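## Example record

The block below lists the input lines for one assembly entry, exactly as stored, with component labels intact.
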Amino acid sequence: MKTTIRHQVIFCLKAGTSGGSAEAFLRDGRTLLSAIPGVTNFSAYRQVSTKNDYDFGFSMDFADQATYEAYNAHPSHVAFVRDRWVPEVSRFLEIDFKE
Amino acid sequence: MKTTIRHQVIFCLKAGTSGGSAEAFLRDGRTLLSAIPGVTNFSAYRQVSTKNDYDFGFSMDFADQATYEAYNAHPSHVAFVRDRWVPEVSRFLEIDFKE
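Predicted structure tokens for the full assembly:
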């Protein structure tokens, strides 16, 4: 098994949050989160399957579990969760893949 | 928006199905599905987040919607769904990402 972890989250945004459009949320997420050390292959997506009820997704890769944990604890991640995720996201599902 | 679609499915396997081990299911899925024309970047994963209740995942990319639809209709995909997926998978969630 490779140690690389593909971390993904699929989510919906609340209507009319102060952060503005979905485009702004996706853009800001990409800018802030992809700059955190150890984050590779960051992508922000529209979730287009009609077979689930989520609208957007972020995906990123970490070389190993320690890098993933450092990301979770990084001040930029903590601030993004506090200032944008909690106020603007209505619901979400996290998915972590290992080969 | 790129036209590339990242198609993913996360799933759980029934216990004690005739197909044998999870490893066999993942290996056969990879062999059969990755050989279908238009499938790129196929990966079979363990889903390791404790924040959802799925155990495995497949991920693949399609260049566009027509290629995705051709995959869905391809005899190898139809046969895999009929002969392995329906008998062996207990529940699943499909996720389709577009940038």
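Chain A touches chain B at residues 1, 5-6, 10, 43-49, 51-52, 54, 57, 59, 93-99 (CB under 8 Å). Helices of chain A lie at 22-34, 65-73, 75-88.
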